[in-house]
Amino acid sequence: MSARRIAPRIRIPRSYLLSAILVFCVAGSHAINTSFIDVRTMLGFGVVGLARESARVPLGPFVIGVGLTPIAEVQLRAAMMMSGDDPSAILTRPFAMGFLTLALLTLAWPCLAARRARRNIANQTE
Fold first, then answer.
1. How far apart are the first and last CA of the chain?
2. Helix, strand or coil for residue 56?
3. Which residues, at least 6 apart from 117, have a Cβ–Cβ distance to it below 8 Å?
4. How far apart are CA 59 and CA 26, in angstroms?
5. How many CB atoms lie under 10 A from the CB of residue 108?
6. Are 52 and 62 contacting, i.e. CB atoms less than 8 angstroms apart?
7. pTM over 0.85
8. Is the pLDDT of residue 6 over 80?
9. Which run of H or E residues covers position 40?
10. What is the pLDDT of residues 59-73, one digit of tens each?
């Protein structure tokens, strides 16, 4: 049978489905190390996920950041060891400085755009 035929026949109320998912999540996180700290951590991340959903934060950048952070950390550690724990050696390279500038501009762009929009609105009202 196909999923199109099965899906309408399985009418589980959302409250029952979410309750079952919560029970399985708690049981699974406790079963890994038989520790309630893992259950608290799982519930904490659930609250973070709920806050992220209510704030409408997109999931894509979050997943990319979680995936790339360990790689970036290893590479930064290797660069620091090669430079003798001198962070200025990383910043003196033009390629690294270009990426740092690009990252800073990317972070500052929303603030600059909002400031420009406010200034344009103020100029139009005068």
1. 67
2. coil
3. none
4. 23
5. 10
6. yes
7. no
8. no
9. helix 36-54
10. 888 888 889 999 989
Helix orientation angle between 36-54 and 14-33, rounded to the nearest 10 degrees: 140
- Measured over the CA atoms of residue 16, residue 22, residue 25 and residue 28, the dihedral's sign is negative
Cβ(1)–Cβ(7) under 8 Å?
Answer: no
Distance CA 97, CA 50 (A): 37
CA distance 45 to 22: 13
55 phi and psi angles, rounded to 5 deg: -85, -5
State both tokens at 98. 């270009």
Residue 26: CB atoms within 10 Å = 16
Amino acid at 34: T
The residue with tokens 């690294």 is 96
- The string of DSSP letters for 2-34 reads -HHHHHHH----HHHHHHHHHHHHHHHHHHHHS
Do you know the residue count of the chain? 126
Q: Distance (Å, rounded) from C-alpha 38 to C-alpha 27?
A: 10
Token pair for 48: 């973070």
**Confidence class for position 1, pLDDT limits 50, 70, 90:** low
pLDDT digits (tens, 9 = 90+) for 18-46: 898 899 999 999 998 988 999 999 999 98
